[in-house]
């Protein structure tokens, strides 16, 4: 009887040991799967945030500048911005800010009497008039889309990516350009962040931060398309992947640090491949 009891006890001990070993192996396997599943995957694109001027279309030289000069002439302000001179003025973000900076440097027109608040009220009025002229030029088809813009937007829409324009230009001007050059169906897919929606304009990151917060985006899953040094500065400050498409006025600027620098999104100069969603996914993975 004692022998049987001892044997049974030994058998139970052996079973318990086997059970413990089996349980330990399950924990190990479970932890192995857990480790694999918790590895952060490379981010995937959720949204493209576009600048407008110089990115969607070459508007600065042939539309904005022309519109400013037309309004200046209509009001006899003895101001005309040359092609080269306007390129320098683009270092200041925002049309109202651009006029103010110019006249602060060269002297205000005699028509601008009064204190600074009166001057700023006149500047605001001029900018609204300029926006109306600009919108007319866009509706006339003065400026086309840049190469590759429509294609990449269509890819994004097909893949259900979010789209937004983040521009220092007047909101009416942005909305008009998007609807006119892209058509109402594409335009309906865009969110617009423009004009004075933020206090600090590019190169401050505020407008991109506003877009990310408003749309509920993850910065690691976004792409910004810019064309200028101040735009690239805003993207960099926001910590968002950025492709720079050099424009007429910005080809000479230093974009060191940008995730990709191209002449245009279709690579029409042969120096780069077209920028596609696959390209963008690769850029996001490189940053991961």
From TrEMBL:
Keywords, sorted A to Z: Signal
Record carries keyword Methyltransferase: no
Single GO MF descriptor: hydrolase activity
Highest rank taxon of the organism: Eukaryota
Leader sequence residues: 1-32
Protein's name according to its UniProt entry: Uncharacterized protein
């Amino acid at each position: 009887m004692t022998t049987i009891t001892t044997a049974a006890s030994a058998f139970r001990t052996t079973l318990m040991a086997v059970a413990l070993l089996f349980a330990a192996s399950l924990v190990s396997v479970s932890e192995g799967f857990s480790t694999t599943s918790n590895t952060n995957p490379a981010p995937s694109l959720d949204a493209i945030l576009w600048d407008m001027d110089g990115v969607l279309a070459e508007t600065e030289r042939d539309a904005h500048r022309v519109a400013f000069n037309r309004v200046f002439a209509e009001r006899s302000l003895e101001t005309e911005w040359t092609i080269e001179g306007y390129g320098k003025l683009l270092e200041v973000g925002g049309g109202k800010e651009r006029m103010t900076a110019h006249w602060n440097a060269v002297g205000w027109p005699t028509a601008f009497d009064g204190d600074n608040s009166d001057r700023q009220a006149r500047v605001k009025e001029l900018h609204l008039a300029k926006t109306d002229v600009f919108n007319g030029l866009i509706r006339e088809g003065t400026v086309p889309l840049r190469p590759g813009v429509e294609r990449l937007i269509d890819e994004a829409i097909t893949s259900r990516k979010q789209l937004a324009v983040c521009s220092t230009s007047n909101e009416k001007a942005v909305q008009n350009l998007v609807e006119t050059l892209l058509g109402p169906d594409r335009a309906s897919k865009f969110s617009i962040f423009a004009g004075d929606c933020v206090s600090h304009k590019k190169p401050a990151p505020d407008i991109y931060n506003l877009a990310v917060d408003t749309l509920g985006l993850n910065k690691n899953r976004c792409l910004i398309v810019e064309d200028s040094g101040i735009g690239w500065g805003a993207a960099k400050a926001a910590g968002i992947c950025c492709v720079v498409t050099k424009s007429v006025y910005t080809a000479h600027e230093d974009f060191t640090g940008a995730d990709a620098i191209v002449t245009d999104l279709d690579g029409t100069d042969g120096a780069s491949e077209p920028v596609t969603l696959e390209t963008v996914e690769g850029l996001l993975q490189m940053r991961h």
